[in-house]
Known about the structure:
Layout: E1 12-17, E2 23-30, H1 32-44, E3 50-55
Antiparallel strand pairs: 1-2, 1-3
Amino acid sequence: MRHTPQDPTRDWCLLRLDDNGNEFVVSRGHSQEEALSLAQAYQARGHKQLYWAQQGPGVPSQK
Length: 63
């Protein structure tokens, strides 16, 4: 299998802050535009949690 470098333009992630102050990575591997759009879509649903886009790996996934 040939190793290919990670696409640096797809290093954005979607994160969530829950009611207890814990941060979770919801998804990774997005472009900036995709991550911002996802964050906006989740926020528009009216969830109690806060969603945002961030460049880089984000916090470790809690799954």
